[in-house]
Write a structure and sequence with these properties.
By secondary structure, the protein is of the alpha+beta class. The protein contains twelve helices and 17 strands.
Length: about 400
C-alpha cells in the first residue's frame, strides 16, 4: 500500500498540488480496505506481547490523560515498562476512555511498509499511531496539530467537526500562542470504515465516534519549514570566522558597521537556492531508517542469495547521485560511494522497494551481469541499506 492507493481515484500529483497543505479532503474506499493493516486481534497482541512505556501507550478521556496507575501494574523487573491490568483496562475503556498506541509502524510489518512508502513519497518524517474507542465520548478536546494528518478509518464511523485555522502555518514553538479556536464548526464530515481523511496542519478539529467500537490509524507527517532551513544554515555558518567572531558591542559605531557589513555578506552569500537544496539533501541523507535487523548481514554469503530471496530497501529518502563513473548515496547518516553500474541497481531497488532477486536481475538483465548484481546486493546488505530474506514469507 502506498500514497496512490490511499488517495485513489485522485492522482498523487493532484493530491500533492491541490490538496496537500491546502484543505481537508476525504477519499472513500471499501469498508475492509485497512483491516489487513490492523484489526482487533493484532491490536490485542500488541498490548499483550509488548511493553510500552508512557506515553507511547495511554488512555485519554475528554482531553485528559487518565492516570497510568489506574490500569497498569509493574512488570516485575526493575526499570521495565509496566504491563496492562486487564480488568482495570476494560473498565476504563467501557467508561469511555480512548486507547492510544503510538508508533505502531515500529511493530506491525504492513504498517511499517506503508510508513516507508509514504516517507519515500513525501520525503518527510512519518509516524503512524493507533486510536481505539468503545463509546461516543471524545478522547480529545478541540485542538489543532502541528503536522499534517492522514486518517485511515479501520472500523466504525467518526464525525469530524472542522473549525478552520486561526494562524497561517502554526508551530508549537512559535512567537504567538495559537490557543483561541474559532467560535463554531464550519463543516462536519462522517468518516466510515475504509475511508481516508486528510487534515492539513493548523486546522482546528474535534472528533467523536458515532458507531462504536471505532479503530483508526493516524499518519502524522512532519514537514520541514523555512525555520528548519535557517536553523540548519546558522549551524553551517559556524565554519565562517566572521560568524564565530565576538560581536564588538563596545566598539564605536563605525567599527560595528564594518562588522555588520561582513556578517551580512557572509549570510547573504550562503543564503542561496543551492544551499536550500543542500539542506534538503542532507536532511534526507541523515534521516533514520526504521530499525530492521538482518542477522544474515553479519557474515554475508553469496550462496544465501537465490532467485527467491526477497530484497527490501531500507532507506526510503536516500537519493543517488552519479558523476564521473561514481555514484554517491546519502543515507543513514553518511555518504556512500559506489562504482558504476551501481546507479541503475540502486534506482531499481529504490523504485520498487521490495522485490525478489530474480525480479531485480530480470529488470537489469540488459544492463548488469547477474553475478555483479549479487555481489552488489551483498555489499548493500552488509551496509545496512538492504535486507535480504532467503525465502518469501
Amino acid at each position: 500500500m502506498d500514497l496512490a492507493a490511499l488517495v485513489t481515484p485522485t492522482s498523487t500529483d493532484d493530491f500533492l498540488n491541490e490538496v496537500w497543505g491546502r484543505r481537508t479532503a476525504v477519499f472513500p474506499g471499501p469498508s475492509d480496505r485497512f483491516t489487513e493493516l490492523l484489526d482487533w486481534t493484532k491490536l490485542s497482541s500488541l498490548l499483550s506481547e509488548h511493553r510500552h512505556a508512557h506515553p507511547r501507550f495511554r488512555l485519554s478521556r475528554e482531553g485528559n490523560i487518565i492516570p497510568r496507575e489506574s490500569y497498569m501494574r509493574q512488570g516485575g523487573l526493575p526499570d521495565t515498562a509496566d504491563v496492562p491490568e486487564p480488568a482495570e483496562l476494560y473498565r476504563q475503556l467501557r467508561d469511555g476512555a480512548m486507547l492510544v498506541l503510538d508508533s505502531v509502524d515500529d511493530m506491525v510489518p504492513g504498517i511499517r511498509e506503508l510508513a516507508t512508502a509514504l516517507e519515500s513519497a513525501f520525503r518527510e518524517r512519518v509516524i503512524i499511531n493507533a486510536y481505539a474507542g468503545w463509546s461516543e465520548i471524545e478522547g480529545f478536546d478541540l485542538h489543532w496539530d502541528d503536522h499534517d494528518v492522514i486518517v485511515l478509518q479501520v472500523y466504525g464511523q467518526k464525525a469530524w467537526n472542522f473549525y478552520g485555522s486561526t494562524r497561517d502555518w502554526p508551530m508549537r514553538k512559535d512567537v504567538e500562542a495559537n490557543t483561541e479556536p474559532p467560535s463554531g464548526p464550519k463543516d462536519t464530515l462522517l468518516i466510515n470504515a475504509g475511508d481516508v481523511l486528510y487534515v492539513p496542519r493548523g486546522e482546528w478539529h474535534r472528533v467523536h465516534a458515532t458507531k462504536t467500537p471505532s479503530l483508526h490509524l493516524t499518519i502524522g507527517v512532519t514537514r520541514r519549514t523555512g525555520y528548519d532551513f535557517l536553523s540548519w544554515l546558522a549551524e553551517d555558518l559556524i565554519s565562517s570566522a566572521v560568524l564565530r567572531q565576538d560581536i564588538p558591542r563596545h566598539a564605536d559605531a563605525q567599527e560595528r558597521g564594518r562588522y555588520f557589513a561582513q556578517l551580512r555578506h557572509e549570510v547573504v552569500t550562503r543564503l542561496t537556492e543551492e544551499s536550500l537544496e543542500r539542506f534538503l539533501y542532507i536532511s534526507d541523507a541523515t534521516a533514520a531508517s526504521r530499525a530492521q535487523v538482518d542477522l544474515d548481514a553479519v557474515r554475508p554469503d553469496p550462496q544465501n542469495i537465490g532467485d527467491e530471496s526477497l530484497l527490501e530497501w531500507l532507506a526510503p529518502r536516500a537519493v543517488p547521485r552519479t558523476a564521473e563513473g561514481r555514484t554517491t548515496l546519502g543515507a543513514l547518516g553518511r555518504v556512500w560511494t559506489f562504482a558504476d553500474p551501481a546507479s541503475v541497481v540502486l534506482r531499481a531497488l529504490m523504485s520498487q522497494r521490495k522485490l525478489t532477486f530474480a525480479r531485480l536481475c530480470s529488470v537489469l538483465s540488459a544492463q548488469v551481469d547477474k553475478e555483479l548484481i549479487r555481489a552488489f546486493v551483498l555489499e548493500l546488505q552488509g551496509s545496512g541499506l538492504l535486507s535480504v530474506r532467503t525465502s518469501i514469507p
